[in-house]
Amino acid sequence: MQDLERRALAVLKKFYGYESFHPMQYEVIEHVMGGNDCVVLMPTGGGKSLCYQIPALLKPGCAIVVSPLLALMKDQVDSLIANGVPAAAINSQQSEAQNREIMENVFKQNIKLLYVSPERLIADMDQWSSDMLISLIAIDEAHCISHWGHDFRPEYTQLGLVKERFPGVPIMALTATADRLTRIDLREQLGIGDAKMFIKSFDRPNISLSVVSGMSGREKLKRIVNFIEAHKGQSGIVYCLSRKNTEDMAKSLSALGINAKAFHAGMPTEKKLRIQRDFINDDLQVICATIAFGMGIDKSNVRWVIHSNMPKNIESYYQEVGRAGRDGMKADALMFYSFGDVKTLMSFANDSGQTMVNIEKLSRMQQFAEATVCRRRMLLSYFNERYDHDCGNCDVCNDPPERFNGTTLCQMALSAMVRTDQNIGFKMLIDILRGSRKSEIIAHGYDKIKTYGVGHDYSNAMWNAYLLQMLQMGLIYIAYENDEHLKITSYGNEVLYGKRQVMLSRFYYDNYAKKPVKKAAQSIEFEGDVDMELLEKLKLTRRAIAKAHGIAPYMVFSDKVLMVMAQEKPTTKAQFGTLYGVGEFKTNAYWLQFTAVIKEHLKK
Ligand code: ADP
Ligand code: MG
After folding, report:
1. Which residue in 173, 181, 320, 483 has the most C-beta neighbors within 10 A?
2. Pairing state of beta strands 476-479 and 485-488?
3. Does the CB atom of residue 327 touch ligand 1 within 6 A?
4. Could you tell me the distance, in angstroms and rounded to a whole number, from the CA of residue 47 to the centre of ligand 1?
5. CA–CA separation, 587 and 16 (whole Å)
6. pLDDT band at 524 (very low <50, low <70, confident <90, very high)
7. What is the C-alpha to C-alpha distance for residues 57 and 354, in angstroms, rounded to an integer?
8. What percentage of the chain has pLDDT greater than the value 90?
């Protein structure tokens, strides 16, 4: 093992209590330690924070972390301090005197990580570049810089200056939501065109995915209540389309005895903060929210997410779903989908500045909702990721449609695409395959190509459905920047040249009829023997400690750490210190309280 790796692992154990890195974390750390720029694309919960925190701890000086939201900064700083890492944030909510004191400490090299907003970084840049020893600059939620992203923030666009001002300092851009265009754009905007991209699979295998379509208001509510009852005592979020919907939903759920509250951007800040705090502290089980909720918190033990309406695009859907199960333990996502949702969303899209793009994205979302192929497969190919097996953890996999070998059929379409230089869209491709005599086809000479008319036995609707499946499975993709022409992926090429077979779902006209969806997946599963009674006691202890320190329970220890504790039952400081997720600082801070509870429990 290299010296660097040994040092990185020592820091990981000391401050975080973990024994090993998640996939790709060490590669990123090594790259940054070599003084290089990079872009890190990992799903929510993938462990992006450690990619910059470990180098920050290993290198002399202070790391600057750009973060878009105050709440997010606070969450990170609190978590770091709870681990014994000297971290701080500079922001407008603190007095200038406080901010000055923090800067003093940064100059004295007493702070390893400093969180700032983008506008603050730009405003104070001259001061910083001359006086501070900066170890690296991390830009979190970096997709905010791109117009292509779904969460564009004007303050981020100035971050292009950072590379000019700090030419020798490694820059790391991190995000969990970057489609192909955003990825490219992001590097350019930051002026780090050569930066290496680290792309980790966006799969979140621990989250089960289900969609229920065509339900009326009352049926839907009943289904939601059943679902929440099946997740007793577990935190979750119900996403709604409008502010009014969130309030109605919270009212209906409360009337049925569920501990739920509404949360939306129109509420007074004070109230929002209180609700958010209660949720984070496990005092409130359910939040009914518009999309405004969730970005500012890193609560790792959200166990489920419900979309009471279809979201406007797959990026939003996946990001919202991703708020569940960040700790890697089992979580459930359920989405409701109706024709009414499509109409509402279509009118939003029409009113937006980028109508074409938004309508296209909406229709991909709709295709996901109606999918007859594994939903995870479809999601991941949407993010241009190769995923060539069925997941076994979505409703389509659990209740599969009829399949047939569709290789030849796919080859017809792929071959027609090759013969037209991949310069045509969906409609034109179907016309060529079906041998249409449209003037556009004749004008381009497409009636002369070999594959013209080979698919005339299939109706327009059938081709539509099968091409959709090819798209959903990642054989082809739509190039939005290129007149929405269809392009073939590497996987598609393998199919075209006979290296891979493809199974398709047989298309019937009533394919999209309502399907019953199985009962929501069950609560947390854990290998091994967890003493449930002890676990409850440990949770109470965690809560008491969190209250006393003014931090969230999951910052004291995650659900997983408590489960390991309830399994291993440490009674000494030494045993406690070796547990998964228990670092040096937390050992010293908490071993007495937890081992006392365990000893007491063992006596009985
Ligand atoms: P992201 O920013 O990518 O959404 P985080 O950095 O917040 O993810 O990490 C998500 C969770 O995973 C956190 O609770 C973190 O402590 C945990 N985690 C990160 N890296 C590791 C690791 N190497 N071993 C165990 N847990 C880890
Ligand atoms: Mg993060």
Report:
1. 173
2. antiparallel
3. yes
4. 4
5. 11
6. very low
7. 43
8. 58
